[in-house]
Each structure stands twice: as structure tokens, then as C-alpha cells.
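hey so i finally got around to running both of the ones u sent me last week. sorry it took forever, my laptop kept dying halfway thru and i had to restart like 3 times lol. anyway pasting them below in the order u listed, first the sequence line then the C-alpha cell line for each. didnt double check formatting much so if smth looks off just lmk and ill redo it

first one:
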Amino acid sequence: MLFERIVSAGISHFSYFLADDSYALVIDPRTDTEVYLNSARENNLQITNIIETHRHEDFICGSKSLAQSTGAEIWHADSQWDYGYGFPVSDGQTWNIGKLKLESIYTPGHTPGQKSYLLYDEQGDPWCVFTGDTLFAGEVGRVDLMGSDRLEEMASLLYDSIFSKLLLLGDQVIVCPAHGAGSICGRNISNRLWTTIGLERLHNPALQLPNKTSFIKTIAKDLEKPSYFKMMEKLNLSDQIPEFIKPPHYPSQEFNDMIADSLVLDTRDISSFTTSHIPDSISIWAEGVPAYAGWFLPYDISLFLVGSSHRIDSTLIDLFRLGYSVKGYFSEDFINWHKAGLPASSISTITAQELKTKLDSSKSLWILDVRSHQELANEGKIPGSHHIPITELTSQTDLIPIDRNIFIICGSGHRSTIAASVLLQQGPYKPVVILGGFSAWKSLKYPIEH
């Protein structure tokens, strides 16, 4: 018997590979499917079924690609939507994987047709439940994807799914969700890597609420939705099979010739980008691409990539998982860009000590804090600073003055650099990135306003 959880970092997505005897089944596969094919080859297994818990909003599901490679049948939830592939799962449907059995459970709430899947062991006892986006470690699924007018309806369905179905499976049952900590599909998913029904009953804050009315009032909230969700919803119903093709590398002059009327994403570190970058490029550091690309990169313009050579391949895969197709990339030392005499821009930076000195001599500095609402609530802010979360920046640039320096702060400097690059695309702003961010400000024990 083989049981593997495959983690896709950045989007904190979990998929699962189950096998017994010579047969295997995959739950919620990602779109780059080699990891499942490799497991099957290495263990002489045949993947016979691919099962989805719901229509995913935050990444392209790899069911179609994996089925094309294996001949496996695809079973999808959310039969209320018009899928271009696979077969709809019915409540109580079962699959045999050798001596193991998997059974579907209708658990709506996150989506109207969400399914969970209960895995029975060789003795026929409930062992694991794959909960999709219904129940996470320390959190429950968001219920706002159907629109504000259905918040209470979806929260009510989620309550019933959890309290009348999942919690009745037994405290010993292992909970295997579709996401871990950091996912946008849950507000405060715990870092607890493995959990059980019993642990969630005891420690999940949403499960401590006194009654259904209180649960609905707490959970029925609109959360942030990146614009790329709509594209993922569309692609995850389509019969189109995404194909990853690594784009070509272009030397500096050719790259410059290619990027007219295109968007350049620069994934180098803060120091490299602020020192010198291609004009009008967007900065998202490599590790931040899965979490932030969908907020700032449109799908209707050609995309080119600048990055460090050792991170290009992983960044291309991260973008592929979000439905982006990169036309070409540049990964040489940026000195070659300068030696070719090509245009470049820079962004001013300042240390926390230098900022404090300026504040002591002038109280009129315009400081923009792009951390989240939760970070401000937990940690406080620089007195007098203005708050616009990074995910709300593009819709609130009219609140930011153009005729003066904008000192931008986040937790460390990464999101500040995103914000600076976004502002420069929007107009003649004068951004200054605060190096080390709020972490540096706190370390120096400078004043904090709560």
C-alpha cells in the first residue's frame, strides 16, 4: 500500500496519491503531473481513477493532463456546472483500490457540489477523509465564492456538512484537506501538517462556536478574491488540456526587442531589482510568485520573465500552475543588460534608521504600509502611516499623492518592492522601499502605534 501527499509550495496545495496492489488513484492533482507518473512508474502501478473534491479556484487542476497520460477516468464534483470532461460523482459512490475502499460524501458549502472522500482501511474501518476545501487544520472553507447574496446559504450548508457528516466519522479519522497554511482558500489555516477529526473538534476555532447561528455569522464573510480566480474557474471546467512548453532564453538585445507592448515580470531579489531593472517591469520575488502573480499579472498581454538562472525553471512551473504562458526569459547577469546599452530604471531605498532620522526632523513624511489588515491588528504600525494592503493597491492608487516621496513598508521589503513597481506602472509616483520593513522597525524598538 502506498499513500503520498504531494505539496505544491506557494499556493499550499495538497494532492494525494493512493495505491494498493497494482492500482492507484489520485485526488486533486496539480497541472504538472510528472510527480504522479513517476510514482506510478517507480512502483509498477496503474493509475485508474482521478478524483476531484470541487472546482478549484486557485490553480489549474491536472486531471485532464493526467488522464491523457494514463487513460484513467476522471470523476469531478460540482455537477451543477457544465464540465467539459470527466464524470460527475454521486453521493455515496465508491471506488476500490486493491483492498482499500474510497467513498464519496456530499459536503457542500465551499462550493455547491463539493465532495469529501472517506478512505476505509483493509479491515473496513474509516481511516482518512479527504475534505477538499470543507475542513482544514484550524480552519473551515471560505463560503463567498458564489457571491455575497449567497453567503449565509453557503455557510449554513458548510455547517451541516461539518457537524452532521464529517464530525460523525470518528475522532480517530485523519483529515486530509486540499490546502495547508498560507492558502488563500482559508483565512487562518494552521501550520499543523497532519490533523484528525478529534484534533479539529478540540482546536479548530470555527468548531468552538456555540451554535449554527453563531457559525453562520462568523463564517459568512466576503474575503479577498484575486482576479485570477475567474480564469481558474473557467479553465477548470474546460476540456482544454494545458501543455507546458519551456520558453526560449533570449540574450539582452533580443530580449529587449521582444518585449515591446508586453509585460515583464522580474523575480530577482529586492536589492537586484531596486538597483536596476527593465523600465515598467513588475517585481515579484521568486518565492512570492505563486501567492502574488494572480493579483497583478493580467492574462491578455504577452508575458516575459527576468530571473536568476537557478530559479527560472521553478518560476515557470509556478506560473504554469496559474495559467500563465511565458513567451521568453532573460536570466543572465544584469551587467550584460547594461553593457548592451539598454534602458534601465532603479527604485530608491532607505533603511529603518534613515527613515527614523527623517521622521524626527519632519513629521510630514507619507508612509504607505502594504501589510495585511491582520498584520496591522497583530503588530501595530508606524505612527501616522497610511494603510493600503498590497492586494488592494491597484484599486486605491488615487489615495496616494504623486508629488512627493512615498515611503513603502511591509514585513521585510518584498511586498514593498511589488508595490513600488506597481505604482510606477500606474503613474509618475516616487516610491521609496524601506529595507527590512516592519521587522527592522520593531528590531530597533522604534515607536509603534496600535
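and the second one:
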Amino acid sequence: MVNGSECQLAYDLRTTADGGAEADAERTFDLTLHCLDRLNELVAPRASDLGAVALTSFWHSLLGLDGDGEPATPVFLWADKRSGPDVGALKEELDEHAIHATTGCVPHSSYWPAKLRWLRRVHPATASSVRHWVSFADLLALRFHGELVTTVSMASGTGLLDVHRAEWLDELLDRLDLRRDALPRLVDRTDPLPPLTAAYARRWPNLAGVPWLPSIGDGATANVGAGCVTPDQLALTIGTSGAMRVIKRCDTFAVPADAWCYRLDRERIVLGGALSNGGNVAAWIAEKHGDGDFDGLTARAATLEPDGHGLTVLPFLAGERSPSWNDEATGTIHGLTLTTDQADLFRAALEAIAYRFAGIYDALADIAGAEHVIHANGAAILRSPLWLQIIADTLNHPVVALREEAEASARGTAICALDAIGARNDLSPPLPIDATYLPDTDRHRRYAAARHRQRRLELALYP
């Protein structure tokens, strides 16, 4: 990345009482334009040093385009749960185990099959007006370059890709009454996009003379940026949500029963699990019960004994993905008393999310090498030494924290771009490490018992 070229703008996620989570496509596009305008200015003194412009984007988004290529729907995000009832119908209509084994995705509201079924059921007129179904990043490719394409990486997060062949799964498309030409053409991360259209080339002259590379899924680039590109390197990410992933280079493979499988490119798969709840839960408690003082709550929670609050928490404020994939799950706090305070709630939530990561870790144990490392990244986790220690203790394994300014997804995107243009011959440059958190045996025993208690509560509520 060109030093000093960072530009970040916040976007507003629109949530609804019935479980919706969406963004306005034009508003999000305008923010992207503003970022690129600023980037064009910032790189001007070093424009001759540029090798490429590369993109990463959020996995799982769904956007409908009309016959003119204009947005016909909002951008539906992974957290949109309104298609939950359609997941059950899909499970009845399809062999869910076969779908998971082929696409790497279980039937769930995060993915396109359920969302498409919901849209046709609830908004049939809107659905019938759609000519192409795309990810938000595909809209950028269409408008900036005049071509509707998506990478196998982005496509692998839709639930419609045969993750083994890296091709759209025609059998599933037929069952969903979806034409292949309604989806973008598949390319790989190393395939340059066509040149910028004339209008955008004039708008960004400092960016117009280099290759533009198509978008890669943000989880895959986070792994690359965290230095986790082989089976003995696990990336643990906590931002708004959470994930734990491992990358493997292989020709043939079986999708593990308790993990999803996406792609970085045609040569590498990404195996892992994702939590719908991460920093969003910690932020919710800080906002609702701690006057927004995240650091103050953290300091108070750090003085408490591990699992010393008497609480059992199911942190499902945004539903749940791995490992239970339960769209109906909601948050639960068991064990409240008159002595429970904000710090108890805060620490209990951090610990509860760590226990969910332990379930993903168990699923990846057979995939990771015996002498594996765990690299932590993401703003929510890297700003909290307490949370890093809790996770190390829960997993009973050292956790290496990256420097917060490393921005793993952006860094990984840059590394992939350098590889694509031949400026590097590997995806493993030196890693910016901040600290290593070592597990404590006694704390691990306490957390193991608490994790078992959490599991019992989950089974009691969601048998």
C-alpha cells in the first residue's frame, strides 16, 4: 500500500424490526467514489510508483440490478435474517448435506438461495424486475469498467458456487429457477479488469494508468494480511462480527461437516466458521449499560476473576452462524442477581464470544497443522488486551496479535495485488506483530467448565 493514502468513510447500515440489515446501493456507491477521489489526490506525489489498484469487499451481499444495470433493490447484507423462514423450506426442497458438501455453504439466511426465495415470496414485483443478481463489488466493476464480472472468491460466499470446480452450480440454479446469465461472469483475482471507462479515467488520472484487479472476499484477504496462508496458520478476526479461518492450497478436498468453505482463488480454499456476534455485542453493552465507555468497562472487567460473575450468556444479539447456524437464536443472559453490574455483563459477554470461537476452533483442529499458530486481527479484538487473553485462555493456545494499524484486509489485498502483477512470488511477507498472549492452565479449566454450561443452556433453549 502507498503510505499516507488511507481514506475511511462510515456508512449507515439500515436495520429493521423484522430482522432486516441492508444498505442503500447508491449511497454506498457515492461513498466509494469519495474514497477514490481522495485516493487519487493522496497518491499524486507517488503516482509513478503505483503498480495496481486492488479491491476487497464484504462477502455475502446481494443486490438486484434491472435491465439498465441500475439497482432495483437495496444491498442485502449477511446479517439480514428476514429470509429465515425460507431456510426451512430450502432444507425440505434440497439435500442440505449435499448442498453444503458442494457449495461449502449450509442453508442459511446469510446466503443467496434463502434471500432469493424470500424476495420472490415477499416482493415478487421487485424480484421480477431484476435482470442480474450481483454483489456490491460487482456493481463497481460494471460502472467503473463496463463489464459485469465477479471473482470466484466473491462468488464462493453466495452459496451458489460449486466450490470444488469454482463454477456456478447449475443444478442449484435450476432448482432456484435462476438463469446462469443472470449472474456475473466468473474471473480469478489475478485477471485484470478492462481499463476504466473514459469518464472515470478523466476523474482519476493518477489511477488510470495501472491495472485494476477485481474484488476478493474480505475474509480471505484478512487471512492473507494476517500472515495466515497455510494450514498451520489460523486467522482469528473480531470486528463487528467474528470469524476463524485457515487457507489451504489443494486440488481435491472434502468440505468439513462443521465448517464452511469459500475461496481465495482457483488454487486456494478458505475453511472456517463465522460468528454473527463479536464487537457488536461488546459495543451494545458499552452503549446501553456503560455510557459508551468501552475502555472504562474493559478496565473494570479486567479486575474480575475469570467466570466469576455467575452469568451464562448466549451472545446471539444478531442471530447466529457457526457452529449452530440458528436464525431463530436470540441473546440470553442467565444468572442475573441484584449484585450484577455493568462490568460483570461486559466480561461475561467477552467470555461467551470466546466460547463460540472455541467451537469453531474444534472444527478446524483436524485441518490445522499440529504446530499451528493463531494470529488475531480486527479492530474490536486488537484494542482489547483483556479479550485477547480471554481467547488465549479459552482456546488453551497462544494468540499472536497484529499491530492495530496493520489493517489486515487492506494489507492482504495489497499483498494479493503484488502477487498478481508479478511484484512478489508469494503471499507471506514479514508480519507486523504487536504481542503474544500465552494461555493459563487454571483459567482454561474455568473457561472449559463455563463453556460446557453455555452449551447446556443453548441446548435447553434450542434443542
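quick thing i noticed on the 2nd:
The chain has 17 helices and 20 strands.
anyway thats it, ttyl
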